[in-house]
Design goal:
Distance between the termini: 15 Å
Strand order of the largest sheet: 1-2-5
CATH architecture: 3-Layer(aba) Sandwich
InterPro entries: ABC_Gly_betaine_transp_sub-bd (IPR007210)
Organism: Vibrio rotiferianus
Domain ABC-type glycine betaine transport system substrate-binding: 6-101
Number of domains: 1
Structural class: alpha+beta
Strand content: 5-15%
Protein name: ABC-type glycine betaine transport system substrate-binding domain-containing protein
CATH class: Alpha Beta
Shape: globular
GO molecular function: transmembrane transporter activity
Number of helices: 3
Number of strands: 5
CATH superfamily: Glycine betaine-binding periplasmic protein, domain 2
Largest sheet: 3 strands, antiparallel
Radius of gyration: 12 Å
Order of helices and strands: EEHEHEHE
Helix content: 25-40%
CATH topology: D-Maltodextrin-Binding Protein, domain 2
């Protein structure tokens, strides 16, 4: 898992699988690069609407113009988030996952 930088100190809020080249994606702003948009899964599966990670993720979608780049953030259950990530990794898809504990 590669964390996408520390944009909200001291937290790393999103990550990508470690097979995504770090030289292409090492921080959130990299997600708007055309070569990354072309490969990255556009759906970002989050958890419940009231969770802190969800609120920060929605804010990041706006601050980094990710919706305009074609990404979509979805709320759901923890299981939805885990399942979406596991399926993407199983298929070696480039995917963004919200990180939380």
């Amino acid at each position: 898992m590669l964390e996408l930088g520390l944009h909200y100190e001291p937290y790393a809020l999103w990550g990508v699988p470690d097979y995504v080249p770090e030289e292409l994606v090492s921080e959130v702003s990299d997600l708007t690069k055309p070569e990354v948009v072309a490969k990255m899964k556009s759906d970002i599966q989050g958890i419940t609407p009231g969770a802190g990670i969800t609120r920060f993720s929605i804010k990041m979608m706006d601050e980094y113009s990710l919706t305009q780049a074609g990404y979509h953030f979805h709320t759901g259950t923890e299981e939805d988030c885990f399942t979406a990530f596991e399926k993407a990794v199983e298929n070696k898809q480039w995917v963004i996952v919200p990180l939380y504990s």
